[in-house]
Amino acid sequence: MARSALLNVMVQAALKAGKSLARDFGEVQNLQVSVKGPGDYVSQADRKAEKIIRDELLKARPTYGFLGEESEEIKGTDGAHRWIVDPLDGTTNFLHGIPQFAVSIALERNGEVVAGVVFNPATDELYTAERGSGAFMNDRRLRVAARKVLSDCVIGCGMPHLGRGNHGKFLVELRHVMGEVSGVRRLGAAALDLAYVAAGRFDGFWENNLSAWDIAAGMILIREAGGFASEWDGGANSLESGEIVAGNEHIHKALMEVIKRPIPTK
User: Which amino acid positions bind Mg(2+), per UniProt (predicted)?
Assistant: First the structure.
């Protein structure tokens, strides 16, 4: 597949950071870990990966802005472009030796995400997308799954943990979804979950209380694979609201209706 110069920059940054993460993943038991918040850990590997990505991206495009999970936002002089980066999505998985984590890099232009890269160094799966050019996994074209009814579907989700989210509200959402689908999965890395929707592995996905770096790259992957990704009411401000629901045309619509069902009064 042909890649633009910008996408090549993103891919090289993701691969370089992924190589560093892969080395640290092999030594996961020896990592020095500091507590960032309840149930939310940050490691030396995380910070090192972000520095690698930031240095690579800003070397190539020094006027672009940079929004990353582990450092303060850099306001670019360009004004129109911003990198949105999660150097290690799935940190808790990483620290427990679970090979379900990823580097996520997106490029935003005038408020719209126009390119995205998600890379899992543990499985060597590289997902890429550019607006108007399709989505790919290791250069193989991706399409969202074609299932049309929820009863045939496997749906991914996020799940609030210690110190995060409204647990009671989520249990109601889960109850509603469980009663409609053939399976629900919670893998613990939103960027990969969304990449799995683009690849047709998951038929749909929903979560809230996310940050822009969790979902920016995954959203364009899904859209370029023929799917839909939006806020729970269909709005286009997921990067600000932290809400996302995704799937093909049919499952996206059906899943929105299910997760918004009112909480039972009895």
Answer: 69, 86, 88-89, 214
Give the chain's length.
Answer: 266
Query: Binding site residues, as ranges?
Result: 69, 86, 88-89, 214
Q: Which two tokens stand for residue 125?
A: 């799966």
Beta strands at 228-230 and 204-207: parallel, antiparallel or unpaired: unpaired
User: Which residues belong to the annotated binding site for Mg(2+)?
Assistant: 69, 86, 88-89, 214
Please tell me the class of the 150-259 domain. Answer: alpha beta
pLDDT tens column, 49-106:
999 999 999 999 999 999 998 888 999 999 999 999 999 999 889 888 899 999 999 9
Q: Mind listing the pLDDT tens digit for each residue in 107-158?
A: 999 999 999 999 999 999 999 999 999 999 998 999 999 999 999 999 999 9
The most distant pair of C-alpha atoms in the chain lies apart, rounded to whole Å, by: 58
Domain 5-141 grouped into CATH 3.30.540.10: yes
CA dist., res. 147 & res. 22, Å (int): 35
244-247 and 154-157 as β-strands: parallel, antiparallel, unpaired?
unpaired
Structure tokens at 142: 């991706």
Query: Is the whole model's pTM more than 0.90, yes or no?
Result: yes
Q: Could you tell me the residue ranges of all domains in the chain?
A: 5-141, 150-259
Of the candidates 252, 75, 243, which has an alpha carbon nearest to the alpha carbon of residue 170? 243
**Which residues, 6+ apart, have CB-to-CB distance to 92 below 8 Å?**
39, 40, 41, 188
Q: How far apart are the first and last CA of the chain?
A: 55
**Residue tagged 């993701």 (tokens):** 14
